[in-house]
Amino acid sequence: LPQRLASLAAAAREETWQIRQQLQAQRQEVARLQEELSRARHDGERWASALQRAQREALEREAMRGAEQARQQELIRDMKERLLELLREKDALWQKTEGIDTPMPSPAPRDTGLCSRCHKDFRLLSRRYSCSRLCQGKVCHACSTAFGKQGRCCLICYQQRHPQAT
Q1: Do 156 and 87 fall within a single domain?
Q2: Per-residue pLDDT of the chain (166 residues; tens, 9 = 90+)
Q3: Nearest by Cα to 146 from 137, 138, 155
Q4: Residue 117 and residue 73 in one domain
Q5: Which of 65, 75, 143, 153 keeps 20 to 30 A from 59, CA to CA?
Q6: How far apart are CA 138 and CA 131, in angstroms?
Q7: Residue 140: helix, strand or coil by DSSP?
Q8: Coiled-coil stretches, from where to where (predicted)?
Q9: 140-154 in b/e burial notation, b at 16+ Cβ within 10 A?
Q10: DSSP state of 164
């Protein structure tokens, strides 16, 4: 029995030693896992912080894009308004200038054998007159009028000089 007790005690010591070894290995494993957990938490916090920063930056960029888009739309609206103003102004100027166009005497044709107004040939019996007013052209009797002692002038020059006569 003492031998049996001694062997049981030895076996119990051996078992205790093995259990202590396992316990120590498990403590080391727990310490390693806690360290890994700590690193994972730290990484998680870092990633959460980076995510929040990225979301904040994305919101800021979106706000800037919205503001820029609003400015561009306002600019487009202003440009359209200005275009309409310019078109109205152009139309008003066009209407003002509509009545200004008065017929100016055309320059005398280079061929002095034709009337500068009706382009009739001057012949032996059709007399040619030099317009003594603006155009200095050669005109026939039908296309000219007497202008007192100063001679004759074409009808267009006479009408420009005396608008009440028309």
Answers
A1: no
A2: 788 888 999 999 999 999 999 999 999 999 999 999 999 999 999 999 999 999 999 999 999 999 999 999 999 999 999 999 999 999 888 888 776 655 555 555 455 577 877 877 777 666 777 776 667 778 787 787 776 666 777 777 777 777 665 5
A3: 155
A4: no
A5: 75
A6: 6
A7: strand
A8: 16-43
A9: beebbbebeeeebbb
A10: G
CA distance 30 to 51: 30
State which residues form the domain around 130: 113-165
Reference 141, options 159, 155, 157, 129; nearest CA is: 129
d(CA 77, CA 18): 86
How far apart CA 30 and CA 36 sit, in angstroms, is: 10
Assess contact for 116 and 139: CB atoms under 8 A: yes
